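Model: You mentioned two targets. I'll fold them one after the other.
Researcher: Yes, keep them separate.
Model: Target one:
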Amino acid sequence: MEVVVAKTAGFCFGVNKAVNMIYDLLGETEEQIYTIGPIIHNEQVVNSLKDKGVQLIYEVESAEKPGYIFIRAHGVVPEIYKEIEEKDLKVIDATCPFVKRIHVLVSEKYKEGYKIFIVGDKNHPEVIGINGWCNNSAFVTDNPEDIKEFKANEEDKICVVAQTTIKYETWEQIIEILDRNYKNVEKFETICNATSKRQSEAAEIAANVDLMLVIGSRNSSNTKKLYEICKEKCSNTYMVQTSGELPPVNIKNIKKVGVTAGASTPDWIIKEVIQKMEELSKQSNDMDFKEAFESSLVTLRTGEIVKGKIIGFNNSEVYLDLGYKSDGIIQMDEFTDDPDFDPKKNLAIGDEVEAFVIRVNDGEGHVLLSKKKVDAIKSWEKIERAYENKQPVNAKVVEITKGGVLASVGGVRVFIPASQLSDRYVKDLNDYLKQTLDIKIIEFDKRKKKVVGSSRVLIEEEKERMEKEFWDNVEVGKTYSGTVKSLTDFGAFVDIGGVDGLIHISELSWYKIKHPSEVVNVGDKVEVYVLEFDKEKKKISLGYRKAEDDPWYNIDDKYQIGNIVKGKVVRLVPFGAFVELEKGVDALVHISQISTKRIAKPGDVLTIGQEVEAKVIEVNAVEKKINISIKEVNPIDPVEPEEENNAANGEKDAEEVPTEHVEEMSVTLGDLVGGLENSQGEKKDE
């Protein structure tokens, strides 16, 4: 049997460049690498990169810095570059140069007012990327019959470009219709030269062989087009992804086999297919190709556990390549019982899956499988080991029940009583729904399928360990990060790692506060330090306020003798007045420093809230005392009593005796004097 392999089979220039770039990057950095979509349409390559730590994402927001975003050969829309920049990620752009040329061309023509027409598959990532460079305004089709839906006037300028992997015949058909219906059509035949050569070479080989094999992913556009071209020339054409998919045909009647491969197919897969063909050819002396092919496949039996690679999936089923003559199918309800499971996010082509064979033939030739049964078998073994070894396991809460919750450990239901969820009272069990907990198996009966778990045991064990570690290492002055657990009128209790310490209200702030809630709240993360502790009584006093926050910190630098300061009178005492210079710093004005004259009490000349100016005459940082003098700057002297009365009477006379009543007052006084004289004369006569 003769095997003819196309010279153009395998990686094209753009794909080869992209693959080399990402493998080079893997050797240069330890930072996370993300690809926007599969780097190429080949599950084996994608799976190989995944094994090396490369993460496949579909949105930039799924990536976390620091890291690299790798743009595949298909290219992307311009918004992707902006999103990468905004997330402060590094970009490695492996867009095929031929595709990049189309981006520039479409962008320029769109700005010049052209209507953009793309000949290609509207769902292909390359076409989606191209359309993004004209604000997604392009008309896209690979079907000549769809042109009637294209909205354009005869006078409109039209720019036509092609998907790099489109069939040349499709391009010609669409261009012919556009030229016939529109005057201003500017055509840019952007089909990749390598694609054209690959397609023409494949057609030539297919026309002269008995069997034609097209190797590549079913998701690859150029592979599918190669298959279509070869099928027209050779009815005996098959598309295979790997050597395990070689067709069951009678090899005795085949003298010549042709082989080509899509642009995303690695050389090693092509070599595997050719090698498998040669092996089957040698076996054909005693059996036909179908028998030889089937003898190379694995055998399956109901009840056994097998491994397979995902070759496709949707929301209801997962398809596995088992190396068997038929694919395996796992219904989604047999894949997982996780209500949050999303196939698009959690599955990838090429992932390896272990499954339980439910039935070898479901009546339609498919193998029915169950992943949940395998998970359950493994989980029972895992739970049993964890119970015997007293090791914790992860469990996801999937249901709220009476008296507790049900959690899943790899498909095995574990009951966790409400009293075992926490070391504190749980008010609402619904808060735990969908949470993943670390639990310890406290009861296990495999025969009765009964498993009971506890988070509380682990919490208490961890607290005990942390408490012991704390008391073994505690010392005065040591700093801890803690969480405020509760507040009282006299302070705040803080969990500093298995131990609760008290910050007295006086240690919360340098200023006077009425309640701890003025400074901290329950749940706050705080930095505290040890003031004192008693190991026997398990008591610890904590400090919170910092020395540098003390308003008296470096007071000597802020207030020096001779400085003139301003402040507000906040308190009066028999021996003087206290003036607030700033929050937390009060200075004393002795009664002798208020006025140049003697005063009985400060209240004679000062009032609460009065603004005053004074001179610093003494600073004692150790005792937190500052003395100031008002009289040396602007003495506040009392008003003399006599002056005060005269002034008051004068003001009163001026107020109470209007000018128009002066004459009336004179008459009244004269009468008063005359009456007095008469009275005295009468008294003398008597």
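Model: Target two:
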Amino acid sequence: MNDKDDKFELDQSAHALYNLLEGIDDTRRVDESGISQSSLIDLLNRQTKELDHYRMLLADAACLFAGILKSSFSAAPSREIDQKIQAFLNALKKIAKFPQFNRQIYCRLRGQQYTSNQSGSETYDYELSFNNIFLDSQMAQIIEEREKIQGKGLYLKLMDAFQSLSEMNVFNFSIDTGAGGAEDYRKLETTLRLLIKFYKNPAREGFVVLDEYGQSNINLTLLAAMNKVKPAALQKLVDKIKPLILGPTPDKGLALFTTVYDAISLSLDRREDLKKIPIEVNKTQLLMDNLHSDPKRAVVVVQISRLVLAKYGSSPRMASEVINSINSAGYINIRPEVMGTRLTRASDFLELAEKNDNGEDLQSEALRNIEEGLDHLPDEMYHHISVNGSAASTFNIEGQETTFLLHEKILDFLSFFIRRSSIKKKVQDIANKNVWFDDDDYAVIAKNFKISKEDAVDLISLLRDSFDFNGNFRRSFFEKNIQSFVRCGSKVFEFLWHYLKELPLRNDRVAFLNALQALVAQFEQPKVALDILLSDIFDPRSTKDVQFSDRNAFILATALLCPGKPLGRSHIELTPEDVLQVKDDLNLDTISIVPEFFEQNHEKIIQKFRLITELLLKSSARENFTENEMQPRFLLYLIREMVIFFSLTGGKSAHAIIRGVVLEFGDPFSAYYREMKNKENLRHSLQLLQIAARSLRRFADPQDMNLLAEIIGNEEAFVALYDEPDPLNHVQRVMEKIRKGD
């Protein structure tokens, strides 16, 4: 990293870069020798650098916000507070320059990961976000490693802010920058000064407004103060709405409002006397991830939140922990040693719900969310948990065993998932004729797939018979029984994919790939299958590694987009190139899930693509490989499949990545070609270039045509890459196809 890189500042060229990847910078960069470096890696690194730039701004804003609130507990000079407020507002203005900034910044306590090597550090596990950019303690450490100068001390600075928020019982906050005008920032400054006033004396009469549970409420107080409404007047409004929400005869029209503040806040757009506050703290709705379009379930979710607030309203920390424990999102990436505490809170809620008139509905909704959260945990999680009688045990980070008494229904869930994880190991080894399944195994499989026990027996029998006595996959048998597999429902695809995708032998992987293509052609829910494949490829753990199954996943994903192109009994390892001619026959309904997935997983896609490209560059510069090691040809074919899939789905990000591939492999003077050891890979690289160029044409961008013309003009330089004359005139044929666009 040079000095110029260390002084990175966002400018118009960086904005343009983001807007195309979303934005792409096609500037050729050269080293001191004048030889161009990897334009694709450079592109991906620039994208990451810009995202890190915004994350550091987000960290600055959060640290200043925590410091401003903390100053209310000290005798900090007013000048120092004024400086912090102005610095905070300046940080927000810089964040607001982010392309397509949605004006909302969030912070919430997750409490699911240790932030250090000490037990209890999960109490400082906060997550900051805006748009689809996230920052937590783990990401702060990654940025420190990437940005040696600008990111120095980022982790400790952020952890100090998170600890301050925890000590002040701030478990979430949101910031709305509005239209970004001077008046919007004046409102933000006023709100900050009112927050300081509130925290100096949260019980101050004549200033603080109480909520429906008689507790000092930050947001109600700020609402009154910001609008210059007498606290007593707003208190009367709260007291008037309270019985309409809490009863004894609640108003059905307010059934979807968790608190009085929510009801008032939503009505502000229709009121001239009150305006929304730009900063909200400890808002219950920010803790509720399980919001539903189903009106009945949505009402139950609100009732759950009200019950939690009624019980734990005086302890925001406990209320936050309980609500997280009955949200499915509360179990994402959770550490095993934190599971016990989280499930204990869930058990507390279930016992609390039992005492309510509609306790059965409340429990049912909570259990559904808990089960959904536990269902998506990796199998390795359950290797650290055991159930014995009415208790479950886990081991903390220091290796000490901790036992938790849990509600019987939660223990049933744990027992089921622990059992399921062990059965999945059996399925992975199903080719071994010594592996047997008993009645309990079939019962678990039946429950998992929501099928009958008899169908579970049939499913395992079909899977077992799909392998011969030598453990080789029998494609013909599998295909003859596709309808029987389909009858087991959408989960059967997930089951087959996750536990048979990495068969040990290459021939078996290819046979399995082709068999699955025949299966997806009959699949009634292609969007479900596509989501399974994309989530697997770009899983956070997968973005740190490349699997042989990644290429097959893209081949299957493309097949799901093109239902009108059956492959029959073909035995292929690559998607036919003529799929790039398909336009009208694409499954647009299936494709519709891709833009949202790309937006939400933008950085994971960048990380994965960078990883594959770096691995290709390194392997191409080597001569010898170990058995089963990924070689350049496989990685080139993997990028080929990614390019085809991206070209069919379309979009700015897809366009940018494909253009980056064309830039990389269309430059005969690049380090990639210069350091290539095996010239056989030159042919495969040019085949990739041909596919990428053809894919690029689908976007019909005039600038892309200029790039392709430049590549064609370098034909002689490509010919010169061969150690001897190109015996098949491969370069000329590739250039001719790029020229004609076919």
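Researcher: Noted. Anything on target two?
Model: Residues 1-36 have pLDDT under 50 and may be disordered.
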